[in-house]
Automatic annotation (TrEMBL):
PANTHER family: 1,4-ALPHA-GLUCAN-BRANCHING ENZYME (PTHR43651). It catalyses: Transfers a segment of a (1->4)-alpha-D-glucan chain to a primary hydroxy group in a similar glucan chain. This is 1,4-alpha-glucan branching enzyme. It comes from Drosophila busckii. InterPro entries: A-amylase/branching_C (IPR006048), Branching_enzy (IPR037439), GH (IPR017853), GH13_cat_dom (IPR006047), Glyco_hydro_13_N (IPR004193), Glyco_hydro_b (IPR013780), Ig-like_fold (IPR013783), Ig_E-set (IPR014756).
Length: 690
């Protein structure tokens, strides 16, 4: 490539100005960007540009022509022969061979029937047959399959998924009725899983989610849903992270048209819809997955140890293979164009970039960890290409990286030499809360350490803050509510039950943890389905170890709907918190200024978005006439109190009381107000007059 310093990076000066520690690595940043530009150049020269390249699903797979003939194409570079079989030819494996084309491509033309009808019908079962180099015939599902279904147990046809042609008549296709809502300035994400959204012990459906769950999400004040486990996965208990069919929507929950309706209904409610996309690895399944599709151990993946993720027991993509890039980039384009998803959370970004590291092997923050041979630059290049393609396709798309490494430049624009994500998950935050709840009583919490964890993020790289996600809810761990209240939730969550100090403490800290995370921890906020009201217990999918039980693979909405249970208090606080953010917009207002963190008082105060936040975590001590600094002179009034009776509190804050600022200043701020700070209470103050 020549001298890396001569690689043009349009806005690299902005990147260097943001983070001076990157200067010693400027040459490598330019080199990385140069590789990205080389790929873009190849695609422009050989493929007619990214627009054409990223629509591989229009070329590969099964396609019905205007005259009702059918064209099928596959990429199988290691195959000796390729055939198509199915209902249409009475399962004669070798009667319909593909023609071999250059570069490992195969093509088959099926003329229309004599009566003009298509030779393959809607919902016909088909398979791709591969003859490997040893002459063996192997049955496979097309990597481009749009609809795959597991046979019912009573059919006694095994557990492998079957591919069915999805080509419904026009009268059965869902037509969008609603346009996409405006891209939120403040992103409040509701992480959800359609299958476990059902209250009944079974798999929930797309239609049920649209009709029953979307209205709940809207009422709670969220403006975005992040949907997990949509890409088809044979193993339900994998939570969608062992993908077998990348272009197929999970048939457990319904058909493709029903998913399109669900997204349209969410859009009608003003909700952005993000897809949890898994391009970091793939299931090892052979007969109903990508693995060994062409009869070799490579094809979409690296051969040998480089193509194996030993910890996840899965396959790793070959990100420098031309057709693999087409497959993955087209996959992102497919979910956007076909289903109208508004963006993506990229799962396993840290693992993609550092898959040689073990689980739990942390990062010190030394910049040398982010450059050189420590990083899988092929994967990094793919992520840059993906973000470049997506944001060119649609500037309103949102991309989020599941990253724990803290890699600099990950959430800076590609034009600066960054990787182009809009946000990264603040994964250290939930770890900190669980650590505190497991190991330390709240009267010994280190206030400075809490504030540091919540504010320790890369300057000008947006972070999604969250107190807990699906990870903390899985069997083997506990939700925050269950860590706080445990078995008391079975006996003392009724408003009619005897008072419980454990429940009282649990409700108070649950609200405070979520508010301080929301207000101090990032530029977006995320909550996992049900945690907003303190859903008890844990998540556990049906599997052999639990006798295929759905008891813990559901959400008990009846708990929050019951007026006699205290779950309603947490739910109402969550709603009020989101509504206050909608009104004041602290998530997009820039970082907070923390003016006060007092270890013995267990208090924290900060300003953000025109509001003053005060937290008293102390278990027993309340403070009268407590001084809180602010740079904004005026009269203040409480606009949210976790101690409000509506939220199960003790009503120790008079929200009608006005607090006039004093210009003498305090805690490094030009003014202060004096307030009452009850124990285990968070209060938010707004300026009501100058």
């Amino acid at each position: 490539m020549g001298d890396a310093m001569n690689v043009e990076v349009k806005d690299i000066d902005k990147l260097m100005a943001l983070d001076g520690y990157l200067k010693p690595f400027e040459r490598e940043i330019r080199r990385r960007h140069g590789v990205l530009q080389e790929w873009i150049g190849k695609i422009n020269q050989c493929e007619g540009g990214m627009e054409e390249f990223s629509q591989g699903y229009k070329y590969y797979g099964l396609h019905f022509q205007p005259d009702n003939s059918v064209i099928a194409r596959e990429w199988a570079p290691g195959a000796r022969d390729v055939y198509l079989t199915g209902d249409f030819n009475n399962w004669h494996w070798e009667s319909h061979p593909f023609k071999k084309l250059p570069f490992g491509k195969w093509e088959l033309h099926l003329p229309a029937n004599q009566d003009g009808s298509a030779p393959i019908k809607h919902l016909s079962e088909i398979k791709v047959i591969i003859r490997n180099q040893a002459g063996q015939l192997l049955d496979r599902l097309s990597p481009w399959a749009k609809y795959v279904v597991q046979p019912p147990k009573e059919a006694n046809q095994g557990v492998n998924y079957k591919q069915y042609v999805w080509n419904p008549p026009a009268t059965e296709r869902y037509l969008r009725k609603h346009s996409r809502p405006a891209k939120p300035k403040s992103l409040r994400i509701y992480e959800c899983h359609v299958g476990i959204a059902s209250q009944e012990p079974r798999v929930g459906s797309y239609d049920e989610f649209a009709d029953r769950i979307v209205p709940r999400i809207k009422r709670q004040g969220y403006n975005c849903i992040q949907v997990m486990a949509i890409m088809e996965h044979a193993y339900y208990a994998s939570f969608g992270y062992q993908v077998t069919s990348f272009y197929a929507a999970s048939s457990r929950c319904g058909n493709p048209e029903q998913l399109k309706r669900m997204i349209d209904v969410a859009h009608a409610q003003g909700l952005y819809v993000l897809l949890d996309v898994v391009h970091s690895h793939a299931s090892k399944n052979v007969q109903d997955g990508l693995n060994q599709f062409d009869g070799t151990n490579s094809c979409f993946f690296h051969d040998g140890a480089k193509g194996e993720h030993s910890l996840w027991d899965s396959r790793l993509f070959n990100y420098v293979e031309h057709e693999v890039l087409r497959f993955l980039l087209s996959n992102l384009r497919w979910w956007h164009d076909e289903y109208n998803f508004d963006g993506y959370r990229f799962d396993g970004v840290t693992s993609m970039l550092y898959h040689s590291r073990g689980i739990g092997e942390g990062f010190s923050g030394d910049y040398n960890e982010y450059f050189g041979l420590n990083v899988d630059t092929d994967a990094l290049n793919y992520l840059g290409l993906a973000n470049h393609m997506l944001h060119q396709l649609d500037p309103e798309i949102i991309t989020i990286a599941e990253d724990v490494s803290g890699m600099p430049t990950l959430c800076r624009p590609v034009a600066e030499g960054g990787i182009g994500f809009d946000y990264r998950l603040g994964m250290a935050i939930p770890d900190k809360w669980i650590e505190l709840l497991k190991e330390t009583s709240d009267d010994e919490w280190n206030i400075g350490n809490i504030v540091h964890t919540l504010t320790n993020r890369r300057w000008m790289e947006n972070t999604v803050a969250y107190a807990e996600s699906h990870d903390q809810a899985l069997v083997g761990d506990k939700t925050i509510a269950f860590w706080l209240m445990d078995k008391e939730m079975y006996t003392h969550m009724s408003t009619l039950s005897d008072p419980s100090l454990i429940i009282d403490r649990g409700l108070s800290l649950h609200k405070m943890i979520r508010l301080i995370t929301h207000a101090l921890g990032g530029e977006a906020y995320l909550n996992f389905m049900g945690n907003e009201f303190g859903h008890p217990e844990w998540l556990d999918f049906p599997r052999i170890g639990n006798n295929d039980s759905y008891h813990y693979a559901r959400r008990q909405w009846n708990l929050v709907d019951d007026e006699l249970l205290k779950y309603k208090y947490l739910n109402e606080f969550d709603r009020a918190m989101n509504e206050l953010e909608e009104r004041y917009g602290w998530l997009h207002a820039g970082p907070a200024y923390v003016s006060w963190k007092h270890e013995s008082d267990k208090t924290i105060a900060f300003e953000r978005g025109g509001l003053v936040f005060v937290f008293n975590i102390h278990p027993t001590q309340s403070f009268s006439d407590y001084r809180v600094g602010t740079n904004w002179a005026g009269t203040y009034q409480a606009v949210l109190s976790s101690d409000d009776p509506l939220f199960g509190g003790h009503n120790r804050i008079d929200k009608n009381c006005k607090h006039h600022s004093d210009p003498l200043g305090y805690a490094g701020r030009t003014n202060f107000i004096q307030i009452y700070a009850p124990s285990r209470t968070a209060v938010v103050y707004a300026r009501v007059s100058d």
